[in-house]
Amino acid sequence: xxxxxxxxxxxxxxxxxxxxxxxxxxxxxxxxxxxxxxxxxxxxxxxxxxxxxxxxxxxxxxxxxxxxxxxxxxxxxxxxxxxxxxxxxxxxxxxxxxxxxxxxxxxxxxxxxxxxxxxxxxxxxxxxxxxxxxxxxxxxxxxxxxxxxxxxxxxxxxxxxxxxxxxxxxxxxxxxxxxxxxxxxxxx
Length: 188
What we know:
Layout: H1 2-61, H2 68-80, H3 87-108, H4 112-116, H5 118-153, H6 157-163
C-alpha cells in the first residue's frame, strides 16, 4: 500500500515538473517571438527612414550643388546602416546617420528656395513622423527585450532557457543626442 502512495506521488511530481517545463518553454518562445516581431516593426520604420533620407538628399542636391561632401557623407552613412539585422548592428550605425541628416537639414537652412520647396517640406514632415514612430517602436521593442531577458534569467525559468540556449537580445538604444528629446527636423 505504501508503495502505491510513493508511486502515485512520483507520478504527480513528474506530471507537475513536465507541465512546468512545457509552460516555461512556451512562455520563453512567446517572449522571444514578441522581441523578434517588435524588431521587425522597427526595421519597417528604419527602411522607410532610409528611403526618405535618399529622397531628401536628392531634393536638396538640386539647390546646393557645391555642398557635395555633406550629401556624400549622408549617402555613405545611409548605405552603411542597411541592412539593419538586429539592434546591436543598428545601434552602431543610427547615431552617425541621425547626426549627418541633421547637418544636412541645418545646411539646407542656407537655401530659402529649398525651405520653400513643397517636396522638400513634405519629405521633412514624413521624416519627422517616421522618427516619432521609430521612437515609439523602440520603446515597445525594449519593453519586450526586458521581459524576455527577465524570463531567461529568473530562477527557475533560466534552467529551461539555458537548456535550449535561448539567445540574449540587445536593447535598441536611442542615439545620445536623442536620448532626452524627440528629434526635431524642422527648417521653418
